[in-house]
User: Fold these one by one.
Assistant:
Number 1:
Amino acid sequence: MTPEKFQMFENRLLKNYKHRIKQAKRQQISCWRLYDHDLPEFPICIELYEQYIYIAEYNRRHGLSDEEHDIWLVECKNIISTMTGISLENMYLRVRKRMSHREGQYEKEEAVIASKIITVKENSLSFLVNLTDYLDTGLFLDHRITRQLFSEQSKDKTVLNLFSYTSSFSVYAAKAGAKSVTSVDLSKTYLKWSEDNFALNDLKNASAYHFIHADVKQYLKTLPPHQFDLVIMDPPTFSNSKRMKDILDIQRDHVELINDVLKAMKPGATLFFSTNFSQFILDAENIQSKAIKDITKATTPFDFDGRLKRWCYKIEKAS
């Protein structure tokens, strides 16, 4: 890698940092994305979690030998540290491999010697973030605005969070005064993480907050009609987990999933539906709702502008 390439990386990083640090301070945000594969020679994602940095290296054919790659990585980390003022000791690196399903997200990395779990703040709420063990940290930064919109509609509502992950949406809803919050996920690991996030925010009400270990596709078939006021559903693009009875393909299955959710919703209720499948096409004609609004742009945070790889819709059930 030539010095000119590293200078290009430093220049891009500086441009991003100057712009985004101002936005973050203005909005009182302490967790945000600095860089995401802006330059082909630097296939990494850089996120700031308060005084820590999380670097995800995309698994690409870089054409470097192991020794050259080590030198490249050290230089990248030095540039990032100098730019942000965050020490190398507070920097954590993961390699993000291309995956055909979500199963690997549930499993710890074998190479992890010591876990690094921190507590961060978002809109005065606290969340546990794991910088070492899993494919993702536990807090999807691209849904920062979506969580706030969801929170604003949660007071006195019966809330359902499907594919709940670490239940950040559930925490937002509970803190906003939801009547009840049900979080459903296939992973016991993430449900325990969810419960820890609730405890961290002093949310303790076993009769109102429920954590359900279930395959969402099957779980939806068991729900009685007209039960929920507000739902968030953020499924994986694809999953063939052994714990599921069927394969999940979000392009193929989204109509069935959404219609099953709509049946479980009260008249006038709202569903927030999101997917990370970049080539996703919503089959609106076969969804049993006449009120479908694309809110992708409206829910795009400043640090993802122009580089967001997900879709988000607000779907209303007829009154």
Number 2:
Amino acid sequence: MSAAEPLSSQLFDCRDAFAVSLDRAAERDHRIVIVVNDSVGSSKLGGFRKRWPDRTINVGIAEQNMVGVGSGLANGGKIPFVSAASCFLTARALEQIKADVAYTNANVKLVGQSPGVAYGELGPTHHSIEDMAWLRLLPNLAIVAPSDPWETAEAVQAAAAHEGPVFLRISRFAVPKLSRAESARFAIGRAETLREGKDVAIIACGVMVARALEAAEALVGAGVEARVVNMASLAPLDEAAIRAAADLGAIVTVEEHSIRGGLGGAVAEVVAGYRPCPVRRLGFPGFLPTGSAEFLFERFGLTASGIAAAAWEAVAARRAP
């Protein structure tokens, strides 16, 4: 994406792209099934259920059973997409994700719907700002947080083809479609540089990538050239892209997640062992007040202006004697 290309003004719900892409994958591979917890509507899987009722398993509000059923289906040769609100899927069924999926390397695709603060007004019980942190601890589990509809669709296809467990973090927060070269390709474990820059690297994932690009554009007028890196894959992690960012001497990480243990933590771990430099982590500090997603983004600096300010701080810290 060049500096002159503005972001699309049209906004998209990535759950729609997830549903369409999963349908395409299921048409090609009869092994694909879905397992849900009364979450057909919120997962946008009504069309799937209508087309393939015999490939739809609804266990009710029983997330631990849901993951166990998914693991059993994988052991029987199916490719289950286990889809539910991320706050309930990853918290209530963490033991089953650990023991039945990651430990056994089961070919289960976990789909955490509406993560981060998408359920803003419902408060901390429905916020999912810890999911990537505790899932990063599990070996064998790929973790992907797509940035827009195109990447969401590509990530679904990659997950279906991947042999082993995958966690897809699918946002319901509306985002623009990002501009990419026609040659762009998605791969689990590979970062994507959307904008080049020499002064500071902004590393973002999920819905924050578009805002990172807006921040980079705003910084141009102030004489700061920011590289924007889309780190959609948190596991496996593209450590080479992080080391290249550290070589610039200043990094800002941006995520709709806790600043502890998620993208910011992953980047800081690599930087600490390679080339320590100023790293500003933008995210959430802990339990959050009740309010809309936009209110929470504004309050905690997860806006284009907030990201630009953090980039300024990182550059200033790098230049300090």
